[in-house]
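Run: sequence + 3,4-dihydroxyphenylalanine -> complex structure.
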Amino acid sequence: MSGYDSKSIHEEIERAAQGISSSQDLEEFKIKYLGRKGILAQLTASIPQLAPSERAAFGKEINSLKEKIASLVAEKQGVFAGRASDSCKLPVDVTMPGIAQPVGRIHVLTQLIEEICDIFVRMGFFVMEGPEIESEYNNFTGLNIPLEHPSREAFDTFYLQKSPQDTKRFLLRSQTSPVQVRAMKAFKPPLAVVAPGRVYRPDAVDASHSFMFHQIEGFMVDRGITFADLKGTLELFAKTVFGKDISMRFRPHFFPFTEPSAEVDISCIFCKGKGWSVCGRKGWLEILGSGMIHPQVFRNVGYDPGRYTGFAFGMGVERIAMLRYGINDIRLFFENDARFLKEF
Ligand code: DAH
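>> structure
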């Protein structure tokens, strides 16, 4: 063991360990003493040159150095790990901007449906919903829509059974009017109902058509209900939704389930009656269909048309929303683009 001074090498290691002040220092220390070309490796490599009688003692010496180095490394590693976890315990910086959680909201159409139904509920109507899968009877026959009526054709209605011979077919309702049949069969007059919901028609989708859209049906039945009740009710509705300054007009029309029937227009909220492109330069915007319930509908549901009269109306919710908010494309309601939905 010539030239090897056990005491001084132990001291050197201790000194080197004391100088370790970062994990980088520690890495360098490990390489210097434990690395492939480190001091311990060099000492181990020198064993064969020793006299056989010296080798065992020198081996022990190397082991004791190795243990010393390992325990110094472990000690320093503990110090640095402690420091790292200390830094995690820094107080929270409350001035930092937070992570915003997007909050959902009620869809513009649902908002409008609720708002419109509320207007009628305040007038004494109650809200009733019917199913979207409806019988052919409730959607057409019960409403006095004859078998040959074009709206009954397969290109205007989604049938769930194929055969046109099968008159007990089911379909996706093409209007909310079948809720009239359901309500009148279930309840005796007096009756005042609003029925919101989805309807389906096999239309090609474009800026003003969708295969699915929403309607709100309304009707009132009692003794002595007149067209004046219809006008007063719809006027209050239209002025609440579109503003007190609008005027209304009732234009004669035809619906199989009402007689007389009328389409209802409001004065154009954009041009105030002067005429521009949205209203086709006419100054009027159509908002709904309406009329006095046809006596045949009363007979179909078991009401005596000699005793009761009633009015009914039906509106497209998307149309009302487009007019009110100046929206020019119906697809915007259904694409779920948050930039659009957030506007309402
Ligand atoms: N159901 C009709 C449609 O989808 C709208 C309608 C018109 C409903 C007149 C009515 C009404 O109740 O009286 O076009």
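>> summary
The longest strand covers residues 212-222. Residues 108-341 form a domain with the BirA Bifunctional Protein; domain 2 fold (CATH 3.30.930.10).
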